[in-house]
């Protein structure tokens, strides 16, 4: 069942993976479903073929841990976006997180497949998990520029982003940066 799910979701690029209706973020839920299925499959195969030796294959188990960590962080990003009311203004930040995380996940899959101790099993894993090779390469320049704009200009998305950041007293570095940002915004009309 895990193999069929991983095979189908990866060969279709997650196109038919279950996902909630979330507008432009629906594709991220589909990709999460795709990578989760791939992770479950590759973990099963690693346990079945290596057994207790997997523990001694530290680089392999570390890469599996990296994938699991990325999936956890990305699910947290989606949860925060949901909890904050699916704000369209936050989509560039969500896109940056998801694109960066998906690129890391695919890179770790490639590293596991290329270094899998049983080469025939590695070839089979490539067929199931990355049949068309690595497709994710991180956020686009456009997404990076949009995120920079959110961070460098006062807007509701920026306020939501820094809402729970510990500022500290006036002598703390973060407090100084926050004050410098406020002063920059206040003096912007003079520069224009």
Automatic annotation (TrEMBL):
Domain of life from the UniProt record: Bacteria
Domain named Acyl-CoA dehydrogenase C-terminal bacterial-type: residues: 2-191
Keyword tags: Membrane, Transmembrane, Transmembrane helix
One Gene Ontology molecular-function label: acyl-CoA dehydrogenase activity
Membrane found in the keyword field: yes
InterPro entries in the cross-refs: FadE_C
GO biological process terms, semicolon-separated: fatty acid beta-oxidation using acyl-CoA dehydrogenase
Transmembrane regions: 35-54
Name of the protein: Acyl-CoA dehydrogenase
Protein's gene: fadE
């Amino acid at each position: 069942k895990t193999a069929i799910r991983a095979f189908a979701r990866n060969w279709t690029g997650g196109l038919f993976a279950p996902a909630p209706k979330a507008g432009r973020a629906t594709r991220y839920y589909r990709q999460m479903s795709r990578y989760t299925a791939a992770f479950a499959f590759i973990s099963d195969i690693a346990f079945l073929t290596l057994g207790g030796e997997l523990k001694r294959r530290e680089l392999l188990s570390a890469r599996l841990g990296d994938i699991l960590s990325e999936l956890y962080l990305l699910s947290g990003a989606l949860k925060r976006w949901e909890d904050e009311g699916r704000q369209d203004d936050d989509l560039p930040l969500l896109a940056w997180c998801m694109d960066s995380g998906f690129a890391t996940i695919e890179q770790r899959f490639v590293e596991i497949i290329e270094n899998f101790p049983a080469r025939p099993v590695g070839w089979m894993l490539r067929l199931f998990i990355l049949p068309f090779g690595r497709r994710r390469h991180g956020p686009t320049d456009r997404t990076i520029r949009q995120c920079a704009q959110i961070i460098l200009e006062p807007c509701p998305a920026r306020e939501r982003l820094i809402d729970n950041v510990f500022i500290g007293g006036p002598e703390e570095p973060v407090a100084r940066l926050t004050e410098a940002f406020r002063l920059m915004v206040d003096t912007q009309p003079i520069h224009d």
